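Exercise 4. Each item below gives a protein and its sequence. For each, produce the structure-token representation.

Item: Type II toxin-antitoxin system RelE/ParE family toxin (Alkalibacter rhizosphaerae).
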Amino acid sequence: MSYQLLYTEKSIKQLKKLDRSTQKLITNYMKNLGLLEEPRAKGKALSANWRGFWRYRIGDYRAICEIDDGRIVIVVIDVGHRKDIYK
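Answer:
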């Protein structure tokens, strides 16, 4: 079972701000994540204001996602450099 990937407008906007090689790195990582049976195994659950979301480390960048097992969907909420992503 593979997960469908959906990107929010915010995450698309943030991806477009990055250089091409970083964009490709992040999109390829997310595509591979969608193919996994259990995408949570590669990520880390977030807490406090981000409770219910998952973080994925992609080099110096982070992707914050929401996973919906009922619809088999991974929603990419935000993408950015690790120093800026949680602000």
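Check: The chain has two helices and five strands.
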